[in-house]
Each structure stands twice: as structure tokens, then as C-alpha cells.
Automatic annotation (TrEMBL):
InterPro entries: Cro/C1-type_HTH (IPR001387), Lambda_DNA-bd_dom_sf (IPR010982). SMART domains: HTH_XRE. CDD domains: HTH_XRE (cd00093). Residues 30-62 form the HTH cro/C1-type domain. This is Helix-turn-helix domain-containing protein.
Amino acid sequence: MYRMRNTMPAKFNLQTATPRDQLLALGKQLKQYRKANKLSAEAVATAAGLSRTTLHRIELGEPSVAAGAYWAAVAALGLRCGIVSTCDDRTAPIPEVIALGNYPQLKSLAWHVQGAESITPRQAWDIYVRNWRHIDETKITEDEQQLIERLQAKFEPGSKDGA
């Protein structure tokens, strides 16, 4: 006869701080959202198809809770989650206004835009394209390189590097 073993999930121990910190932050945000919207834990747990205990463990950011339970809690709160890539910043949002002071090479190219501390993304891209030959590529900061890649992906989506 088959004998059921302990039905409690195994304790899961994350070995790195970053994923653990992310789960803690997610749990905390879910709890804050639930409370800010005056939703009881019982109501959210029921809507998510979870036990109240599991919701509590999610709000504590426990790594042993199944990922599906986390997403069920997110959905029950009417929220959406997505994956943010840290390896391809070309898809990160471009600011509506680009502060010249944050991008040294762009600032040096935009000498003709006197009195302006910021410009639009289209203006920035046009300045880069028109004046690229004047850029000292060894002095491009990582932030500026990411901005250039995002601008290229937006304004030249079919290009070799912007695809």
C-alpha cells in the first residue's frame, strides 16, 4: 500500500541575496497594495485560490512558495508582473526629456542648443547621428551607451545593432 509522506514542502534556501531581496520586495509591495486598497487577506487569498497561510508566506517573500502562487496573488490583486531584463537595456523606457548634463558626449555635441538643459529623444538621436564623427568613443559612459542603444532601437529598429 502506498504511504503518503510528509506533505509539507521542502524548505528552500536561496543561495544569493538578490533573488531573496526581490522576493521580499515583491511580498512587501503586494501586502502594501492589498492594505492600501483595504482588501482583507482572506478575500485576496480566496480570489487567488490560496490559503490565507500561503498568502501570508507570499507577503513575507518566502522562496519555498510556488511561483504560480505568487502570480495568483498578483492577479487576484488586479496587478500585472513582467520580466525586466538586466542584460538588454535597449528595451528600457527612454525618458521623455533627456537631460544633457547626464550624457557628457551628447552635451558636447549639442553645443548649438544654447540655454537648453534638456532635449527630446528625437533631438538627441538626430544629434548623435549627425555628429557621431566628433564623439570620443572612449569617453562614452555606460549610461550614455545604453541611451544610444535605446534611441537606436526606437528610431532605427531595422538596423543591425538596433534589432
